[in-house]
Model the fold of this input.
Amino acid sequence: MAYGISDSLVWLNYSALMLGHTATRADATGKTLEIIEQEIRRLAEEGPTEDELVKAKSYLKGSFVLGLDTSSRIAAQLVQMQLDDLGMDYIERRSGLIDAVTLSDAKRVAKRLLDSGLLVTVVGRPEGVVSKEGG
Done:
């Protein structure tokens, strides 16, 4: 249904922004957005499952070093760590911080961050998508 899908969090001083992106055919845009919105509603209402949390933790810990494969990416990570005031020992503490997140923590944060709705902007010529008032 989609050629690719991703999201990212942008942490700012007084708020955070969740950005999402998907690449799909014009005739699949409506269904793709429907599935994304259903999943976000599910996470807001129920939170992640234990299995989803375990997989997310594994991904976060395993993928971190993959982003340190060039000098520029290492430098960017070090600058971001400094901007976020994470401390010089963050890389050593990171796995433990991830492991410390409980299912209860993840559910609480999912509700807080995702329960306020979703704003979707579509660019292109999507089929099966109509503007939703208040959504």
About this structure: The helical segments are 29-46, 50-63, 71-83, 90-99, 103-114. The CA atoms of residues 40 and 60 lie 20 Å apart.
